[in-house]
Amino acid sequence: MKLGIVGLPNVGKSTLFNAITNAGAESANYPFCTIDPNVGVVTVPDERLDWLAEMYSPKKYTPAVIEFVDIAGLVKGASRGEGLGNKFLSNIRMTDAIVHVVRCFDDSNVIHVEGSTDPLRDIDIIDLELVMADMEMVERRIEKAKKAGKGDKKFLHEAEVFEGLLAHLNDGKSARSYDCDEEDAELIATSDLLTLKPVIYAANMDEAGFADYAANEYYQKVKAFADAEGSQVLPICAKTEMEIAELPEEEKGLFLEELGITESGLDRLIRCSYSLLGLISFLTAGSDEVRAWTIREGTKAPQAAGKIHTDFERGFIRAEVVAFDDLKACGSMAAAREKGLIRSEGKEYVMKDGDVVLFRFNV
C-alpha cells in the first residue's frame, strides 16, 4: 500500500511525514527503510504476527508494509505545471490513497501561505488542482472514444459517460463524488484520475487543540466536509507525533498514557488506511517464516493464495484455515486441530482478517 502525503506549505505535512517514518525507524520490532529522501517504508504493527513469531521462532519475520510518499511541490497552478506541479501530480498518480494534511491551528510564528487559517479553503485549493488535472485527462478520453466510436455503441456510450463526468468536474467536484450506476463506475475506474483516489484528511492541530479536538472549530469543519464526501478524517498533532517518534521505545507507551491516548498517530493512520481501502491481512506461519499478507476484503482463497505465488492460485486444492483468536486460545496448531478448529476450505471461501492459512496446491 502506498500513501501520498499532500498539503500546502506550513500545514505540518513534512513534520508528520518525518514523525511517522521516524516512528518506524526507532521501533526495534518494526524496522524502517528509506528508499529516497522523500519516501519511507514503515512496517505495520501486528501483535498477531508477534505471537506467531514467539510460537515458531522462524528464520524470517515479514510484516505487512506501508509506503509513505512525502509529495512536495504544490502551488496554485500545479495542474498547469507551475512550481513542481507536474512532478507533484505524477507522484500522486502512483499512490493508492491520499493523506491530505490540513492545518487546523493558529500560530503567528508559522506563516500560512494564504495568510490565515482556513482548512476548507486549503482543501479547495488542492482539490481544484486535482480536478483541473483530471479534466484534461477526461477530455482526452472523450476525444479518443469519439474517434473510435463511429458506429460502435460501446465507445459512444463511453464518450457519454465521460462527458457527464466532465460536466461534474467542471463544477469543481471530485470524480469520487460522481453519482452513476455500477457499470459506469467501473468504466470510470479504468481511467487514472486523481480525484478518484480515496482521501484521509489529517487534521493537524497544536497540542492545546488536539487535547480537546472534538471542540476544535477547525477540526469540526474538516470532519463535516469529509463526512459529506465519504472520506475519513484523522485528528492528529504532528508536533506531538514527532516527540513520540524521538523517544526510546520503552518510554513511548508511558508518554502516550500521560497524554491520555492509547495509540500513536502512525498506528491510527495505518488502521484508518486499511479501513479506507477495504484491506485485511491473512497470516502464514512456520519455522521458515511468519508473514502477514495484505488483501482486499472479499478476496477468495485461491486469489489470496496467488498473492504468495501464482502457482498457488493456479494449482489451488484447498486452504487449511484457523482463526487467529482460536489458535491463540488453544496455544498451538496441534491443540487447535484436536478441537476441530482447523477448517478445510475450498475455492469459494472468502478470506477473513486474521486467518492463519496453509494452502494446499498441485501444479
Beta-strand content: 15-25%
Radius of gyration: 23 Å
Secondary-structure element order, N to C: EHEEHEEHEHHHEHHEHHHEEHHEHHEE
Could you name the ranges where pLDDT drops below 50 across 5 or more consecutive residues? 23-37
What does the average pLDDT come to? Answer: 87
Instruction: Label the overall shape.
Output: flat
Q: Structural class, please?
A: alpha/beta
Number of helices: 15
In total, how many beta strands?
Answer: 13
Gap between N and C termini: 30 Å
Please outline the major beta sheet: 7 strands, mixed
Describe the structure.
Residues 23-37 have low confidence and may be disordered. With 363 residues, this protein is an alpha/beta fold. It has a seven-stranded mixed beta sheet, with helices on both faces. Helix 1 packs parallel to helix 9 and helix 4 runs antiparallel to helix 5. The protein has helices at residues 13-25, 47-56, 85-93, 119-148, 153-170, 182-188, 207-211, 217-229, 238-246, 249-259, 265-277, 301-308, 310-314, 324-330, 333-338, and strands at 2-6, 32-36, 39-43, 60-62, 65-70, 97-103, 199-204, 232-236, 279-285, 289-296, 316-323, 343-345, 355-361. The relative contact order is 0.13. The radius of gyration is 23 Å and the shape is flat. The chain has 15 helices and 13 strands.
